[in-house]
Amino acid sequence: MAASFLEGTGVSKSFGGLRVLNEVGFRVAEGEIVALIGANGAGKSTTLRGVAGAMLPRKGRILFDGTEVTRMPAHQRALAGIALVPEGRRVFAALTVRENLEMGGFKYRKQRGKLRSLIDSALEMFPRLRERTDQRAGTLSGGEQQMLALGRALMSEPRLLCMDEPSLGLAPLVVQDIFKSIRAANAAGTSVLLVEQNARYALETASRGYVLQTGSIIAAGPCAQLKHDERVKEAYLGRR
Question: How many other CB atoms are there within 10 angstroms of residue 140's CB atom?
Fold first, then answer.
């Protein structure tokens, strides 16, 4: 088994007395794509936000490349190499496409040549954005906003990319493009922790997965194995 690049142990979280994560454990090896699947409210996004620093767990530990980041502020995790593409894209609607990308590359703001190179790479990955660099992000289609959110995250050259529901509300052809880009980022060396309600897409993209149900992990293992798990087939894949 490969050494853990990201590891969470005993991660728990409650909101208003309601426990949404219950002693959750997970790991991601360097260069791996790992999926978190489950129904709405299972705790997937909360787990991902805990990794990125957008939420602090009530208890448990999160280690990133051997360093504990459980209580580390989100901006420090970003500098350490963790990037989050949040559910719903969350682009800066009033800023242009280029300005959004520049925000993603904020740590390179004093290296203008580096910043331009990263913007070129993002626009090469998403040619549709190249035609819209001076367009306000809020006027883009949902698919274009998802491309921009992913491109913005990759501007920081993350070592770990946290993707939250990338297929949500998008047309099937756009979803295919987004997942192709996720695989390309992984092939270039970025580890990926993927939260995705579409279990079929998730299990076809990742090498390993965890199944969350009401805040607890009920199944884990290689995705090829999870596809044949009766609980996963019944609840998330349907029967053919």
Answer: 21
CA–CA separation, 28 vs 2, rounded Å? Answer: 9
Per-residue pLDDT reduced to its tens digit, 100-157:
999 998 888 889 899 999 999 999 999 999 989 999 999 999 999 999 999 999 999 9
Neighbours of 188 (CB within 10 A): 11
CA distances from 180 to 67, 86, 147 (A): 31, 18, 11
Residue 153 lies in a domain: no
Boundaries of domain holding 190 = 4-89+159-237
Question: Which residue, 64, 68, 98, is CA-closest to 83?
Answer: 64
pTM recorded for the entire structure: 0.90
Q: Confirm if 212 and 38 have CB atoms less than 8 A apart.
A: yes
- Per-residue tokens: 164: 């939250």
φ, ψ of residue 159 in degrees (nearest 5):
-90, -25
The CATH number of whichever domain residue 30 belongs to comes to 3.40.50.300
